[in-house]
Amino acid sequence: MSNIAVGSKGKVNANKVNVRKDAGTRYDRVYYAQSGDIVVVQARKTGTDGNLWYKITNETHYTTSVGYIRNDFVDAYTGGSDGGSGTTSNINVGDTVITILPAVNFRSTPGGTSLFQVSTGTTMAVTAITTSGGYTWYKGVLSGKTGYLRGDCIEKYTGGSSGGGTGSGSSDDFTDNVTTNPTVTTHYTFYAANAVAYAKAHSSNVNTDASDNKVPDPKRNTSFREGATGACANFVHQCLLAGGARMFDGWCYKLTGVPSSWDSASWTYTNKGRRRLLEKKWIERIPNTSVKAGDIIYSYYSDYASRNMNTPFNHVTIAITDYDSSTQGCNVCGHTLNQNNKFKKLSDTGIPCTYCYRVKTSLGGDGTEKAIDLTNGNSHAI
Questions:
Q1: To the nearest 10°, the Cα dihedral for 95, 101, 102, 105?
Q2: How many CB atoms lie within 10 A of CB 297?
Q3: For the segment 144-169, what is each residue's pLDDT rounded down to a tens digit?
């Protein structure tokens, strides 16, 4: 059994280990930790079962939840490649990282004063790596200033999209034009009703806590790291998986069983995700008035440049009812602006207007795509 000091790291030594709300087996599970997860011990406590428990944060899956794990499921960790499924465990000095959340603080020191905030998609060369306050921090230079980005806000940048070149695969292509001809050797069936059921089950209308702080959706699937902002595409993509879509290289989240070599850069982005699905020929644009439950709805800002946005496709939700001509809209579920069965007006004009897409019933694939078990807290490739 391990004896890890507060502030030190440990490595989970078994799969599907319960991380609980307090120290003892009688307490509810917060999530499952997986073999290879790197955790930071925040406190030690003798549990109701007489065993030593560690209060931990999980660096590998970047969950915002803090919980307790029994000490016999954690070994002391001294560094090096952990082989887990985290997105920053393979980052070294000299690598380039990319921010995966909006409004990320670039700090003067680890956990120190914010020099300024950077947007999603900002890249930085790593000059040093350190740990502080239970997080890994990456040092570099942005806008002529030296500072640090926190590990749960970034991932390793591999450059460009998996589509190749700068044609229709480019993330700044805001059209529906597709010139790719993906290989198709098999087909998967998409069930819109299953996507809708997942959307309803994993969304709420809770947006703030008792102190009026913005919070992630409390009904989210904790296998997918979500912050209080920048979570809309992540959520909608999960809904598509529930409907029968499968992850592929270029459109995936690094869950257990998903190849580590696959490009996951598009998963949390509205337009990048839209482009990957168009290139796969899994979605097609439809009129607003044709929307049915299970369709995807993007908020489109034609004046995005003057708003300092990276893309006109600023937000995405999933329809859970059909278009109603009397109200000129439908009900949706979504994250970031946490919504469950909320009305959304659909319009071809104005700012923002709406761009709507339908997932095809038959999805062509090359057989390498990965089906996902969406068990809350333990989602993984099948």
A1: -60
A2: 23
A3: 789 999 887 888 876 433 222 222 23
Query: What is the pLDDT confidence band of residue 82, given thresholds at 50, 70 and 90?
Result: very low
Q: Which of 335, 329, 298, 327 is nearest to 205 (CA)?
A: 335
Task: Please give the CATH architecture assigned to the domain spanning 96-156.
Answer: Roll (2.30)
Residue 128 structure tokens: 């040093």
Report the alpha-carbon distance of residue 207 to residue 184 in Å, rounded: 41
Task: From the options 1.10.10, 2.60.40, 2.30.30, 3.30.200, give the CATH code of 9-76.
Answer: 2.30.30
Whole-model pTM over 0.85: no
CATH 2.30.30.40 residue ranges of the chain are: 96-156
Across the range 181-197, mean pLDDT stands at 96
Peptide bond before residue 218 is cis, with ω within 30 degrees of 0: no
Query: Phi/psi at 276 (nearest 5 deg)?
Result: -60, -40
The pLDDT value recorded for residue 136 is 87
User: What's the whole-number mean pLDDT along residues 268-286?
Assistant: 94
Which has the higher per-residue pLDDT, 312 or 318? 318
Give domain 162-382's CATH architecture: Alpha-Beta Complex (3.90)
Gap between the Cα atoms of 9 and 74, Å rounded: 9
**Where are the domain boundaries for CATH 3.90.1720.10 in the chain?**
162-382
Categorise residue 296: left if φ over 0, alpha if ψ from -120 to 50, beta otherwise.
beta
| Sheet of 296-300, strands arranged across | 283-286, 353-359, 296-300, 313-319, 329-334, 339-345
State the average pLDDT for the chain. 85
54, 71 in Cβ contact below 8 A? Answer: yes
